[in-house]
Amino acid sequence: MSQFSHAGVSKLNGEFKVRFANDATRVKVLIKNGHTDIDIIELKQPMSKEDAVAYLMEIDFATRDGKTNADVQAALAAELDKRSPTTKAPKAPKAKAEKPTMDKIKAKVAAKKAEAKPTPSKAEVIAQLATMEDAPF
Q1: Does 66 lie in the same domain as 11?
Q2: Predicted confidence pLDDT, tens digits, the chain (137 residues)
Q3: 45 domain-assigned
Q4: 79 φ/ψ sector (left φ>0, alpha ψ -120 to 50, else beta)
Q5: Does 61 fall in a domain?
Q6: 13/50 same-domain check
Q7: Count of domains in the chain?
Q8: In a domain? residue 32
Q9: 122 and 75 both lie in a single domain
Q10: Taking the chain, what is the end-to-end CA distance rounded to the nearest angstrom?
Q11: For the residues of 80-102, what is the DSSP string, one character each?
């Protein structure tokens, strides 16, 4: 599991997202890529993404000078929902495919041959062509 020493938010295309980094130079990369409203802090210790988001929520990261930024709060909540463990129903085990045997292969080929229409003989084809009408061109 990756550990990050910095976490925060940035805005790209009008939408805030939570960002994670291992050093403060990540800010330069975000600026270069067109991010605005960048607010990344150094965490008290290296943390996983889940722990970092929980820490940001705990310290009320979205509130500055007594005002809560609803967009930042929503981004943190969305990231928390994304990262929180969900209780998924366990998947049913898949049935193992049987290994084909030569007898099964021969039986399958015989069944296909029984289904197939027999190829008409040359005489049958000539008789069918004789009964056909010429197309009016």
Answers
A1: yes
A2: 689 999 999 999 999 999 999 988 889 999 999 999 999 999 999 999 989 998 998 888 888 878 888 888 888 888 888 877 665 667 777 777 778 889 989 999 888 888 877 788 899 888 888 888 777 76
A3: yes
A4: alpha
A5: yes
A6: yes
A7: 2
A8: yes
A9: no
A10: 75
A11: HHHHS---PPPPPPPPPPPPP-H
Strand, helix or coil for residue 60: coil
Q: Strands of 65-135 (E only): list them.
A: 67-68
Tell me how many degrees the CA angle 93-96-100 measures, rounded to the nearest 5. 170
Model confidence pTM above 0.85: no
Supply 59's token pair: 């310290």
C-alpha distances (whole Å) from 1 to each of 47, 49, 83 are: 10, 9, 13
Q: What separation in angstroms does the CA of 64 have from each of 1, 44, 59, 68, 118?
A: 31, 19, 11, 6, 83
Residues spanned by the domain of 63? 4-83
User: Would you say residue 97 lies in a domain?
Assistant: no
